[in-house]
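Protein record

Derive tokens from sequence
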Amino acid sequence: MTNVFSPITLRGLTIPNRVWMSPMCTYSAAADGEHIGQPTDFHLAHYSARAAGGAGLVMVEATGVAPEGRISPFDLGLWSESQVEAFGRLAGAIRAGGAVPAVQLAHAGRKASVNPPWLGGNPVNQAAGGWQAMGPSTVEFPGFPAPESLTHGQIADVVSSFAHSARLANQAGFEVVEIHAAHGYLLHSFLSPVSNLRDDEYGGSLENRARLVLAVIDAVRAVWPEGRPVFLRVSTTDWINENPDDDRRAWSVEDTVHLAGWAKERGIDLVDASSGGLEPALIPESRDYQVDKAAQVRARSGVPVAAVGRISDPEWAAELIRDDAADAVFIGRALLRDASWTNNAAAALGAQPRFLHQYDYAL
């Protein structure tokens, strides 16, 4: 049986274990000046600690592929050669800690230009340093200004931006890139019929709504090294169809299964299966609220899947891998609370923690 602390090989890359750090925004990048979008000393300490703490892969948070693709003015961004050196230092620190360095490439779409959560998470207007948000249609995220509907030329620019950022990520030394198509951001907003009301080739049918995501996959895969994996983060559901009082057609597990199959054909190596984010929704409190949907996608699409969401118990993480519900687990809040959660989990499960020599005294 596969163990959560056994290695996994995707294309030509072997990841030392299946406990991975989930991408979680910290809203701590440089916000202006010549260092805009670059990682800071905070990021270096934050991510390298989780690598040294035993994670097999460390996924750097949502990184904007264009200035207007950031969620907030304090988001990371990778759209310029001038940003590569700082990201290279971060990738190197993760690798030195024993983990595989990965980065999530993102465009915030209609949820862009907001303050960090601890400043209220409210929209930032252009006079205060914000920018015009964009989406597939002029359907706003509740409480936010209406976005501009992307033109065909702007859609082509988005595709090119993802490819350009992937090239820069490769230069910086990252070994995995993840395309962010979840949580109501730009790519997800094209996928869902709730936010995508277009009547052209990017709207209407599932095939049309998936067109932009698949174009981004093709563009990224074309510039990313053949021997390195590309991940796709998705929301398996908008949590709208599960509400009996809401009869709107929304994004579903069934849609996700179709998308995962198409993505696999285009070179996606693993689906990072999250959920929600398109608009506020009632989400179940059960432990397996999200993991169960990840398992369905894995079983029905044949694509390797990483589960995420409320995984804080080492025994349950091990069970998910052992029972073929997932190929890996992304750990979020538990790793925010404890940088060494992975090594502690290994010890609890009777596996060998991956201590660096500098920490041998802890054995």
